[in-house]
C-alpha cells in the first residue's frame, strides 16, 4: 500500500492515495498506520479519494473532485481537520492531481466544502466561520478551567488560563475531563494564554491542544480557528487576524464576516510503501 507522510506545523498525517475508493480502510488499519512505534506514525490518516467515489463526499461531487476522508489516530472519524486540509491540498498540487491556477481549489470534507489557496510554502484554507456558544468547563490535573464552546465544523472547548497557571506546565498526557451533555461526541480542548504583539495581527495567542482521538498534538488547525474567534471576541471584535503559536510553529487565522482562513506551512516529507499484513502483526 502506497503512502505519503506530511505535516502542517508538526500536525502530521499519513496520506493514502485511493482515487476510486477501493481501499479497505478500517479503524484497526488506521490505528496501526498511526502507531509511532510499530507503524508509520501520525496524528491521523488522510485518504485521497474522488468525491464521487465516497458516500460521504458524493453529495459534493458536483463542486469538488476530491474528498478528504480524515480519520483520527485511534481509528475514529472526524468531521474536519484544518491542518489536514492544508496538507491534503499540498499533496494534490505536488502530485499533479489538482492545479489551482488563479482560483481557490475546492475540497469536499465531512464538514462541507472548503477552499484552498497555495502560495509557495504556504497553504491557506477557507472554512466556516467559528460559532461561539455557551460556556463549559474542562478539568485537568485537579484544575477546573472555564471555557467557551466553539463549532468549527467539529467541536472545541477553548479555555483561557488564569493568572499563575503556566501553559508549558500543563500535563496533557491524560485527557481533560469535559461535560458529555455539552459534547456528546467528544471535544478538542484548547488551552491558551496571550502572547506579545505581532506585526500584522490584531491579537497573538499561544495554544496547546488535546485532540479527541489523537491526544496532544503539536498543532490543530480548527483549534487555532476556534482560539482566534475567542481571542477576537475578548477584545470586542467580530473580525480580524490572529497569530496563533502552537508547539509546532505558527499559523495565522483571519476571521471574516462569513468565513475563516487558516494559513501556514504544509510540507510532504516522505513517500513509500507499507505492508498492511505486517501492520496487523505489530502486537
From TrEMBL:
Keyword Iron carried by entry: no
Biological function: Catalyzes the stereoinversion of LL-2,6-diaminopimelate (L,L-DAP) to meso-diaminopimelate (meso-DAP), a precursor of L-lysine and an essential component of the bacterial peptidoglycan.
Cited NCBIfam families: DapF
UniProt-recorded name of the protein: Diaminopimelate epimerase
Active-site residues annotated for this sequence: 81, 220
SUPFAM superfamilies named among the record's database cross-references: Diaminopimelate epimerase-like
Pfam families: DAP_epimerase (PF01678)
Amino acid at each position: 500500500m502506497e503512502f505519503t507522510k506530511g505535516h502542517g506545523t508538526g500536525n502530521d498525517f499519513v496520506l493514502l492515495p485511493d482515487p476510486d475508493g477501493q481501499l479497505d480502510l478500517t479503524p484497526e488499519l488506521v490505528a496501526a498506520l498511526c502507531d509511532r512505534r510499530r507503524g508509520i506514525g501520525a496524528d491521523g490518516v488522510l485518504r485521497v479519494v474522488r468525491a464521487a467515489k465516497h458516500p460521504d463526499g458524493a453529495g459534493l461531487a458536483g463542486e469538488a473532485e476530491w474528498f478528504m476522508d480524515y480519520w483520527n489516530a485511534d481509528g475514529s472519524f472526524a468531521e474536519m481537520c484544518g491542518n489536514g486540509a492544508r496538507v491534503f491540498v499540498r499533496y494534490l498540487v505536488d502530485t499533479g492531481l489538482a492545479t489551482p491556477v488563479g482560483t481557490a481549489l475546492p475540497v469536499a470534507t465531512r464538514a462541507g466544502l472548503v477552499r484552498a489557496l497555495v502560495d509557495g510554502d504556504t497553504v491557506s484554507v477557507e472554512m466556516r466561520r467559528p460559532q461561539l456558544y455557551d460556556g463549559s468547563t474542562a478539568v485537568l490535573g485537579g484544575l477546573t478551567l472555564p471555557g467557551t464552546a466553539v463549532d468549527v465544523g467539529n467541536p472545541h472547548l477553548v479555555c483561557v488560563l488564569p493568572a499563575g497557571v503556566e501553559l508549558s506546565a500543563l500535563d496533557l498526557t491524560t485527557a481533560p475531563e469535559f461535560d458529555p451533555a455539552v459534547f456528546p461526541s467528544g471535544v478538542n480542548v484548547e488551552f491558551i494564554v496571550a502572547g506579545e504583539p505581532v506585526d500584522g495581527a490584531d491579537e497573538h495567542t499561544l495554544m496547546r491542544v488535546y485532540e479527541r482521538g489523537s491526544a496532544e498534538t503539536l498543532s490543530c488547525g480548527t483549534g487555532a480557528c476556534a482560539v482566534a474567534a475567542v481571542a477576537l471576541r475578548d477584545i470586542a471584535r467580530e473580525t480580524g487576524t490572529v497569530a496563533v503559536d502552537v508547539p509546532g510553529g505558527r499559523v495565522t487565522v483571519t476571521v471574516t464576516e462569513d468565513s475563516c482562513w487558516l494559513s501556514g506551512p504544509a510540507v510532504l516529507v516522505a513517500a513509500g510503501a507499507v505492508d498492511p499484513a505486517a501492520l496487523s502483526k505489530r502486537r
